[in-house]
Amino acid sequence: MKPKVYRISAFPLNLILLPGEEIPLRIFEPRYKQLIEECLESKLPFGIPYMNNGKIDEIGSEVEVVKLVGRNANDDMVIMVRGKSLFRTIDYFPVLPNKLYGATVSEPLNIDFTTTNPELAVKVKTLKLNLSSEFGTLITGVGINMLDIARAIMLKSDEKYKLLSLQSNEAREQFMLNQLKFVEIIRKQELRLENNFQLN
Fold first, then answer.
1. d(Cα 60, Cα 68) in Å, to the nearest integer?
2. Angstrom distance (rounded) from CA 126 to CA 23
3. Within 10 A of 48 (CB to CB), how many other CB atoms are there?
4. From the CB of residue 118, how many other CB atoms can be counted at a distance below 10 Å?
């Protein structure tokens, strides 16, 4: 179990990565090359504090390096990273002693994103969202994890941050309901355009 407060090496980006999400990252700055080299060697995770308008915001993602995709002649790297967990930043140090990179002092973001909202469940089923690699569109258990929905509809980082920042479960449910309604409208428009194209 993660301690209540812990330090984690930091690579600030305008990015929120939810648990289970994977993306490639290009590493070209010397400080972050050093960080990733150490993560590859030690198999330790690192933190991505969310940067908003050049400032470190409160919430960040703890990620692990899944694999080194490749390097070029300048030793720039492309790596694949996967979200592990989310944290709340307490403090940020731009540079650590004897390192080129910095770190955050953080605490785990302990929020239960489970919902039993029937309207959300209906929208998830209507849209046939693939909520997990194991169960696909099937809703199992007593509730749905709103982070699984956010991942399935590919929310942008600023939208994820908004969801993670909301203080009540009711507010989070309403936010996700609005997002699902928007996805539903987009899908209906795409279907209408497709049908019109076929008729022509």
1. 22
2. 28
3. 25
4. 8
CA distance 24 to 10: 17
Give backbone dihedrals phi and psi of 127, rounded to 5 degrees, phi first.
-85, -5
Q: How far apart are CA 104 and CA 92, in angstroms?
A: 4
Sign of CA dihedral 41, 17, 145, 184: negative
SS3 of 82, please?
A: strand
CB count in 10 Å sphere of residue 149: 24
106 has which bridge partners?
6, 89
Tens of pLDDT, residues 66-120? 999 999 999 999 999 999 999 999 999 999 999 999 999 999 999 999 999 999 9
CA–CA dist 111, 63 (Å, integer):
18
Are 1 and 57 within 8 A, CB to CB?
A: no
Amino acid occupying residue 147: L
Tell me the two tokens of residue 169: 């479960």
**52 DSSP β-pair partners:** 55
Per-residue model confidence as pLDDT tens digits over 183-193: 999 888 877 77
Which among 80, 58, 57 is positioned nearest to 69, based on CA atoms? 80
**Full-model pTM:** 0.86
